[in-house]
Amino acid sequence: MAKQNIIYQFKIELAEIEPTIWRVIQVPSKYNFWDLHVAIQDSMGWLDYHLHAFRLKMPHHRKNTEIGIPDDDFDDRKVLPGWEVPITDFFIEPGHLAIYDYDFGDSWSHYILLEGILLKEKGVKYPTCIQGERACPPEDCGGVPGYYRMIEILDNPKHPEYTEYVEWLKGHAKNYYPYEPAKFEPDKVKFWNPKKRLKTAFS
Predict the structure, then answer these.
(1) Domain coordinates of the chain in residue numbers?
(2) What's domain 3-136+184-201's superfamily in CATH?
(3) pLDDT tens-digit series, residues 93-102
């Protein structure tokens, strides 16, 4: 079966957050891990401001493999460049699970599950986000503890830090105000061209 007619369906769940923030995306099987990274960023709502890495166990490898952007400052960490590794090298059949870490300061971890290998549908442009729930945390909000603290403050307009947080959300590069944690609309997701994103990342 021609590879260009196959798509991979992934479920993405943000770890340690309740209620769960999740997405279901479909991407071409020809994607590499950089392409998948871009699709995850765009569907979740991240801004791709920070480093990322996939952590997984490749077939016939004893140790976990890390795939992302190699960093010469960390010689003890061998990171494979995502743009050189096809997703089909690891995601061979439904049920395969990987960890995707984003922003090593705020430490956001995501579970990436291959739900299915499907035929493309006529008239559908891939990648696409077909399901999901809840808004992505604002970039640089301080990880899981910072996210919960922000939600607590925004729920109480009388909180002494309420105005400060509102101004921060308004002045953010994305302008997150008003932040509605329960809101997500899959049909509003817009996907970047991963090749253009790669060029931008290294320009």
Answers:
(1) 3-136+184-201, 137-182
(2) MM3350-like (3.10.290.30)
(3) 999 999 999 9
